[in-house]
Automatic annotation (TrEMBL):
It holds the Pfam family Cucumopine_C. InterPro entries: Cucumopine_C. This is Cucumopine synthase C-terminal helical bundle domain-containing protein. It comes from the Bacteria. Residues 160-298 form the Cucumopine synthase C-terminal helical bundle domain.
Length: 314
C-alpha cells in the first residue's frame, strides 16, 4: 500500500495526540476525508464491538464512494483507521468481537499505539460513566486545526432552504448536546411519552429508531440514488421509510427532527434532480447521526453495570 497523507487525531481535553498515515487501500474514501479537514467531532466508543473508537465524520460522499478493499476488522492490526458508510471515522485499539467487513484507510504510527489505547480508555469512561464529552480533532499533520461542516446545495429553492436549515441545526448540535436530547434525558418530554411515567423506555426507543433512520433509511436512499434507481422509486421509498420513524422520534421529544421530516416529505415531488435528492438526504443523514452520537453519549449505560457477560459453561 502507498501513503497518501499524514494526519493527526487530537483529543485536546485529554492532552493526547496520535499521528497516522492514510493509504490507498480505499483511496477515494481517504481523499474524501482529507478534503473536509480539519474538523472536530464528539468522540464515541463502541458499545458492543470491543476496543474501538469512532466519531461521526462530515463526509457526505461516504455513502456511495467505491470501496475496493474490505476486510474483517477483527483481523487487522491495532491502530487501523476506518471510514464507513455509517459515516464513522473509526480506530481499532484492541480486540474486536464483531465480524463486520470494514473499509480501512490508514494506520496509526506504531509509536503512538500506547497513546491511542489511553485515549480509548478515556473515551470509554466518557461514554459509559463520567458522561463528560470528549471532542476529537482531525487535521493534516503539522497544520493548524479548526472546524467546519461542509454544506451541499440544491437547485430547487425549497429543497435548498431545507438543506440550509438542517445544516444550521446540525452545526448548532455538532459540538454541544441539543436541548431536546438534554430534556429527554432529564425527563422533560412534552408529549408525555413513557408509559407509567418512565423515561428509560423512551430513551431506549429513541436510540433504537434513530440509528437505523440514519444508517439504513437515509444512507440507503443515498446509495440507491447513486446507483441510478429511478427517481419515482426513490421518492416513493423515501415516503415509505422516513415518515414513520421521523414522526415517532418527534413524539419522543425530537420535535426539530419531526419538523424537518415533514418538510422533506412535503418537498419530495420537487426533487426530480438526482443531485438535489442526494444533497437533501445527505444532510438529513448527518443530522440524524449527530443526534445519535449525542444520545449514545447521554444514555445512562452505567445503570447496567450489574449486567455482565458470563463465561460459557465447560
Amino acid at each position: 500500500m502507498n501513503t497518501i497523507a499524514r494526519i493527526e487525531i487530537d483529543w485536546p481535553s485529554l492532552g493526547l495526540t496520535v499521528t497516522a498515515d492514510l493509504d490507498d487501500r480505499n483511496a477515494q474514501l481517504a481523499q474524501a476525508l482529507l478534503d473536509v479537514l480539519p474538523y472536530r467531532s464528539l468522540q464515541g466508543h463502541a458499545l458492543v464491538a470491543g476496543y474501538y473508537l469512532y466519531h461521526v465524520t462530515p463526509v457526505h460522499s461516504v455513502f456511495h464512494l467505491p470501496t475496493p478493499h474490505r476486510a474483517d476488522r477483527r483481523t487487522l492490526p491495532d491502530g487501523t483507521l476506518f471510514c464507513s458508510r455509517l459515516q464513522h471515522f473509526g480506530i481499532k485499539y484492541g480486540t474486536l468481537t464483531e465480524p463486520m467487513p470494514a473499509t480501512p484507510i490508514g494506520q496509526v504510527d506504531p509509536a503512538d499505539l500506547d497513546t491511542l489505547a489511553e485515549a480509548g480508555r478515556a473515551a470509554w469512561d466518557s461514554v459509559y460513566s463520567s458522561k463528560k464529552p470528549v471532542i476529537a480533532e482531525v487535521r493534516h499533520a503539522g497544520r493548524p486545526g479548526g472546524h467546519n461542516l461542509p454544506r451541499l446545495t440544491a437547485t430547487d429553492p425549497i429543497a435548498d432552504q431545507l438543506i440550509a436549515d438542517v445544516h444550521t441545526e446540525t452545526t448548532r448540535a455538532w459540538l454541544e448536546p441539543p436541548t431536546e436530547l438534554l430534556d429527554l434525558h432529564d425527563g422533560r418530554i412534552r408529549s408525555g411519552a413513557g408509559s407509567y411515567g418512565t423515561t428509560m423506555t423512551t430513551m431506549l426507543f429513541v436510540n433504537g429508531e434513530s440509528r437505523p433512520l440514519g444508517y439504513s433509511v437515509y444512507g440507503g436512499l443515498i446509495k440507491a440514488a447513486s446507483e441510478q434507481l429511478p427517481m419515482d422509486a426513490l421518492r416513493h421509498m423515501a415516503r415509505i421509510l422516513a415518515g414513520t420513524p421521523g414522526e415517532f422520534l418527534a413524539y419522543c421529544g425530537l420535535e426539530t427532527l419531526g419538523h424537518f421530516t415533514a418538510r422533506l416529505l412535503a418537498c419530495l415531488d420537487r426533487l426530480d434532480n438526482r443531485d438535489d435528492f442526494i444533497a437533501v438526504m445527505a444532510h438529513m443523514a448527518l443530522y440524524v447521526h449527530c443526534l445519535g452520537g449525542w444520545n449514545l453519549q447521554l444514555f445512562p449505560w452505567h445503570l447496567g453495570e450489574h449486567l455482565r457477560t458470563q463465561p460459557e459453561p465447560r
